Model the fold of this input.
Amino acid sequence: MTEPAPAPVEATGTDLQHLRALVLAGGLTFEREVSINSGGQVVEALTRAGVDAELHDADAELLPGLAAAPVDAVFIALHGATGEDGALRAVLDLAGVPYVGSPAAACRLAWDKPAAKSVLRSAGVATPDWVALPHSTFRELGAGAVLDLIVARLGLPLMVKPATGGSALGVQKVTRVEDLPAAMVSCFAYGDTVMVERFVDGIELALSVVDFGDGPQALPAVEIAPESGVFDYTSRYTPGLTEYHAPARVDDAVAARAAEVALTVHRVLGLADLSRTDAIVTPDGEVHFLEVNVSPGMTETSMFPMAVEAAGHRLGDVLGRLLARRARP
Done:
């Protein structure tokens, strides 16, 4: 049996119609445009649900504005470091501003992909073997020698990705040794530390989790089938380049295992309210954790809204209920 979806969400006048929310989007990261798109979709969905929602950038006017005109709660639709490394949430905590999402410390851990993988592997979650190294290591020890050791240890093909970051920016699949140096150089454009991970073939799933206060619950898994075979930035945000299936075309046993992995990730990392875990299901049905997103995308091609719809809910009702839970008393 699959993990049950959340109970039906009712958007009542008492719950949402008097709720005033600020949706944060934008920021100064590589993912700014994606974030603005997410934020616009969130405001639209919340407005349809009866919430008074306004879009705002994470800039120097944010804190004075919140002090002058407090809102009931903030929804963070920021992607990249601004919204996911915990720093902004720590500032909101200092200012006493309630927000939807995971606390700062949990975000810092989830943001660091190698650290999150280490913690989850210790908790018994399968994840592909990896090595994470800063740019200085290649410079000081010689890139050729280090890359030779990586290939000898992990084999081919490999996935090369920044150790922090989202939207698959800088992510490349490497099938030939001679292509690895260029992939590393490209990856370092998005961060000082690169993570090289053993490629695992299988079905890619997006596993969304929500928690309305009675414990985290897994939404239906979304299957991702990119035309190129790699779910990179272009495949994510260009309509028509990726097929999505919600719920995923996997049997009940695999769906249940995938849901349990997502719930374990959410609990072990100390996440709150909502999250989206990316995973691969191997041909033998084993679910491998790849990474987790504490600020899931909300664009037209994002998987969290697809999972909400597959569960029979409306996005605005779900996000509104999360806001109502965190709102000022």
